Amino acid sequence: MSRFFLNIRSFTSLIRIQNLAFIVFTQYFFYFFVLIPIYKDNPGSIVLGLNGLHWLVLASVLIAGGGYIINDYFDLNIDRINKPQKLVVDRFISRRWAMFLHLILSFAGILISAYIAYLLNNLLLLVFNMMSVFLLFVYSSTFKKKLLTGNVIIAALSAWVIMVLFVAMCQWNPGTWVPEWTTQLHQVYKIALVYSAFAFIVSLIREVVKDMEDEEGDKKNGCKTMPIVWGIKSTKVFIGVWILVLFGLLIVFIFNLIIAGWLLGVLYIIFVLLPFLFRIYMSFSKALIKKEYSQISREVKIFMLSGIFSMLIYYFYQ
Hints:
By secondary structure, the protein is mainly alpha-helical. The protein has 14 helices and no strands. It has one domain.
C-alpha cells in the first residue's frame, strides 16, 4: 500500500499537480467571471457551453501534464545537479515509463481536442493544441537549452491557456478563417488579450528567474541560457525592464479604470498588485544565491495568481 501511495505521489510531482490546478483555476475563472457576464444579455449565443468547457480544461491539463513529464525526461542530468532531492524520473519512475506517460497524456489531450473541435466546428482548437504538444516536446529536447527561445515558447503557451477560450468562442465564416465578429466576441477578445499579455510577460520573467536559479546544472550540461550567455548582471537588467513594463501597464490600467468608474479595480491595483510587484523587484535586485531566486520564482507565481483574481472585479461591474 505504501508503494502505491509513493507511486501516486511521484506521478503527481512529475506532472506538477499544483501547476495543473493553476491552469484549471485560470480557465474556469475566465469562463465564469469574464465570458459569462459578457453574454449575460444573450446567453443563447455562447458557443462554448459548460460541457465543452470541461473537455477543454481537461485537454489543457493533459497536454500540460505530458509537457512536464517530457521536460523531466530530457532534464534528467541537469536535475541531478540543480534539484536532486526533487528527482522523480529514474528514481521513482523509469525513463521508459516517463516517455510512455508523456505519450499517453499528450495523445489523450489531442484526442479530446479533436472531439472539442468537432463539437464546436472549430478546427483551430485542434491545430493549436497539437502545436502546443509539439512545442512542449521541442522546448524540452532542444530550445530550453537555447538563449531566450525556450523562455518565449513557455511564455506563449502560458498566454494560450487564456487565449484558447477566445478561440473556442469563435464561429467562422464559411470557407474563411475570419470569425463572425459580434460585440460580445470583440469584448472577449480584448479581455483575453489583456490577460494573455499579462500571463506572457509574468511567465517570461519567471522562466528567466528559473534559469538563474538553475545556472549551475545548465552550465555543466552545455546549455546556453541567458544567465550563462549574457551573465547575471545583464539578465537582471532584462528582467528589470520587463518588471518596469508591468509597472507601466498597471498605471495605464489605473487611469482607464478611473475613467470607467471601477473604483475596486483601482484599489486592487494600488494596494495589491503594485506593492506585490515592487516587492518582487526589490527582492530580485538584491538576490545573489540560488535559494533567493527560488523564492522569487514562487513570488512571481503568486503575483500571477493575484492578477487572475482581478477577474472577480470585472464580474462585479458587469
